Amino acid sequence: MDKNNKIPFDEDNYTHNINKNNERKLDRRGFMKTMVGAAGLFAVSTLPWGSIAATELMGLREKKYPKKEIIDVKKLKVGDAFEFAYPTDHDSALLVRLGENEFKAYQNACTHLRCPVFWEQSKSELVCPCHHGFFDVKTGSPTAGPPRRPLPEITIQVEAGKIVATGVKRYET
User: Do the Cβ atoms of 57 and 67 come closer than 8 Å?
Assistant: First the structure.
């Protein structure tokens, strides 16, 4: 001990407090190398999932939907709506008959917060009662309220007097 009651050290590289074996390997440089390696490993391991997501989001792959019979044409009067499930039993959809041979179908979930949408026949519009969102029945585009995106349209066709759902149109910006 010196006269100031401190322990003098011979070295000047600030490693005097390292007492354990191999403790010197965990310095900033070693830590940064480990972090870069971990980030690289993470990037490589998520690459397949990223390519699948990019393919899906960019619309490079066409989805296949099952054909599903909705209702007989005779059972749906002009101006009426019919609720059904498509493409799965958990996806609610709404079919509206606009004219003798004019039908429109949309997924029945508001594009704002996914509340169910209802057909307002007197005003000829689709209404989301949660936040007063309104959609044009011919295009599915929002006309008022908080929704900014159109309702996803379900493609339909008439086969042997029955309305059949064949797919869901991809959302386009």
Answer: no
- What sign does the dihedral 63-64-68-74 (CA atoms) show? positive
Q: Give residue for tokens 């995106």.
A: 149
Cβ-count burial 32-43 (b if 16+ within 10 Å, e if not):
eeeeeeeeeeee
What is the spatial distance between Cα 138 and Cα 142, in angstroms, rounded to a whole number? 11
Reported pTM: 0.69
Query: From CA 86, how far away is CA 83, in angstroms rounded?
Result: 10
> Torsions phi, psi of 25, nearest 5?
-70, -20
Query: In 19-67, which ranges are continuous DSSP H helix?
Result: 28-58
Distance of CA 105 to the CA centre of its chain: 20
**Closest to 76 (Cα-Cα) out of 57, 47, 101, 39:** 101
pLDDT 10s digits, 123-137: 999 999 999 999 999
Q: How far is CA 57 from CA 15, 52, 77, 130, 171, in A?
A: 53, 9, 38, 28, 10
- C-beta atoms surrounding 114 within 10 Å: 13
Radius of gyration over every alpha carbon of the chain, rounded to an integer in angstroms: 31
